[in-house]
């Protein structure tokens, strides 16, 4: 069975491609390489012995995407491709709306034309906004505070409307919490360009000595130690959630939003400690004011994923830090 993975050379996509291949699926990757490297294909081959078929195509190139569907009998799509940096989305909103929304509309229209009606979409916990209290349930009202988040909420709406218009569609909207860590081989992981915005890539660069300290954004929240609490999830657990969602979509029609989180919250300082013990490195940190737009606490209720998909997270914070550290140490030494 051929599965098209958009954004398949990216961080979460590459881990999902590895699992798809290991589960016996034939994988076709579409990526424009705007935020990933072609070498990821070699790493996937090193892990699985199979190099997936690859198209360097932009989702904004309608004819280019169409050609992939003409050349291949595709049974389902996992749609990761998108721009994802919150701060950047505030600076260049039109690029975010164009890339994420127009790209997705192109994909959906072409899928429809080719009668491919199974799609798993990368949504985000960001759609819960600032006003819901954790644990976050799929039924809670949605709101967003930046263009990136708005694209996720709008795409969810577009896909729900699509299902209402045509009940043959099978759509799973996976709302990710905070994916971290890397494949246990240390061959694929997250290695952003420039100075990272997210906590774990930042800590990793402090650990390897490329940055001299971590800025901790606020220690006066109403949490266990005053620092922000998040639901960190190992990227391989997250990837496995997509395999289960794909199997579910093959057997059910509908448009279901499903949280992928562990259901547990961990504070910034708890993560610092866990990363220190995983890496054996000291992480210097400085307390700074709160970061605008941050909530104190954000974690999932993960019952729906268990009930509908038979999925729950298996890896703990120590696994996430050990695998994340091994990857960054591997990248730094090569
Ligand atoms: P990533 O940037 O590593 O991967 C996205 C991939 O999509 C990249 O390889 C990029 O080159 C590609 N891409 C972007 N626009 C494209 C286009 N127009 N055409 C073709 N390819 C394009 O990001 P990731 O962390 O793997 O995230 C994957 C998805 O999950 C994204 O949609 C992101 O918004 C969503 N998500 C990520 C997180 C997270 O914390 N990493 C959390 C929630 C949701
Ligand atoms: C990020 C995304 C959000 C997405 C979510 C889940 C941003 C701003 N938001 O949120 O859209 O839905 O992931 O994938 O990117 N922190 C520090 N110092 C740092 C970086 C972070 O103290 O240098 C703290 C933050 O204040 C927060 C925690 O670490 O409490 C996690 O931050 P981050 O990794 O950026 O993720 P989120 O803010 O949860």
Strand order of the largest sheet: 3-2-1-4-5-6-11
Q: What is the general shape?
A: globular
How far apart, in Å, are the first and last alpha carbons?
36 Å
Largest sheet: 7 strands, parallel
What integer value in Å does the Rg equal?
19 Å
Tally the helices: 11
Order of helices and strands: EHEHEHEHHEHEEHEEEHEEHEEHH
Strand content: 15-25%
Number of strands: 14
Summed over residues and divided by their number, the pLDDT gives a mean of: 97
Which structural class do you get from the secondary structure elements? alpha/beta
**Low-pLDDT residue intervals, each spanning 5 or more residues:** none
Percent range for helical residues? 40-55%
**Bound compounds:** nicotinamide-adenine-dinucleotide, uridine-diphosphate-N-acetylglucosamine
How would you characterize the overall build of this protein?
There is one protein chain. This protein is an alpha/beta fold. The protein is 42% helix and 19% strand. The protein is built from eleven helices and 14 strands. Strands 3-2-1-4-5-6-11 form a seven-stranded parallel beta sheet, with helices on both faces. Helix 6 (147-165) links the parallel strand 5 (118-124) and strand 6. Helix 1 crosses helix 8 (235-251) and helix 7 runs parallel beside helix 9 (268-279). The chain is globular and about 55 Å long. 47% of the residues are buried. Nicotinamide-adenine-dinucleotide binds at residues 7, 9-13, 31-36, 58-60, 80-84, 99, 103, 122, 124, 176, 179.
